[in-house]
Amino acid sequence: MRVEAPIKVDRKTKKLAKRLEAGEIAVIKHMDIDEVAANSLVEAKIKLVINADKSISGRYPNKGPGILTEKNILIIDNVGEELFEELKEGQIIEVIDGKIYRDGELLGQGEVLGRQEVEQQIKKAYENLSTELDRFIDNTIEYAKKEKGFILGEVEVPKVNTNYANKHVLIVVRGQDYKEDLGTMLSYIEEVKPILVGVDGGADALMEFGYTPDVIVGDMDSVSDEALKKAKEIVVHAYTDGRAPGLKRVQDLGLDAIVFPAPGTSEDIAMLIAYEYKAELIVAVGTHSNMIDFLEKGRKGMASTFLVRLKIGSKLIDAKGVNLLYRSKLKIKYIWALIATALFPVMILVSYSPSVRQFIQLMQLKLKLLLQM
């Protein structure tokens, strides 16, 4: 295996993905590459990934490396912090069988992960899943005790300008299958006209489909300036002590924002705002809904996420995987059956109409003359 290409470097994979161009090498420091990060790298059409950390630590079966190798993007794994610091953006490097060269000089090396290697490591990770799940549950209970005030009214929900009362709310997060699921929701959006809420990069996802987000909620680290400028309202997620690093970015753009200090994730507070202001229904696209999703998020326990969903209850509909309902193609025999069924009552009515019968007989006669029958 030999690859030679320019590199782009960043410790934050989601930031790097925005700068990558086709044919480049992505240099990251990302333990347990998650599904969203992997998909962003695939979309950038890169040649190779060099990871300073372990792409699969073995704690749980993360999906990212499998997504990359299925698209024939190899990973040079666990090259180390020293080599990561040595590689500078824009340099052209050469990678031969896991060894990394610059101008002919060997800088270091890592383990080459292809499909087979990833499958083997993921298989081992499944064996550790029960241990990780036990730890996750313990953390969830511990954090739930600390964060129960989040849903018991101890955390004050700020006043917003958007009127949620008795309306549907569509909350979009850039998570697993968000594009496919959002694509199947287009008729719902057109017919119901829900309030459109983008959680950070979810706002850009809405714009990709031609919609302007009514509200953007998040810490503002992965949403575009264009989306922020077009949104009708911005809610900056702050730490519980009031610090809001994302607020400066919004203010630098000359925009106003509401600050919401709260534990948990930005998608949690987006749902909580909609619920507290009496939304009739909350539809979530791309949010966390299964065990691997929660483990990939990385936050211990994800207690606030569970608590918020517990509070919202039946008002929340998770649209994850809804695209799978529409993948089967309608067979031609079913189409003809539908046509025949629709025409049957029409033909019955026609048979009782003398004028229509005469018209049909006339058309048959003309057809015979035309065909010289």
Automatic annotation (TrEMBL):
Signal peptide: none
The keyword Transmembrane helix appears for this protein: yes
Molecular-function annotations in GO: ATP binding; kinase activity; thiamine diphosphokinase activity
InterPro entries found in the cross-reference section: Put_SteA-like (IPR047795), SteA-like_C (IPR022215), TPK_catalytic (IPR007371), TPK_catalytic_sf (IPR036759)
Transmembrane segments: 334-353
GO biological process: thiamine diphosphate biosynthetic process
The Thiamin pyrophosphokinase catalytic domain, residue ranges: 193-234
Domain of life assignment: Bacteria
Record-annotated SteA-like C-terminal domain positions: 320-371
Alphabetized UniProt keyword annotations: ATP-binding, Kinase, Membrane, Nucleotide-binding, Transferase, Transmembrane, Transmembrane helix
Annotated protein name in UniProt: Uncharacterized membrane-anchored protein
Organism: Asaccharospora irregularis DSM 2635
Source taxonomy: Bacteria, Bacillati, Bacillota, Clostridia, Peptostreptococcales
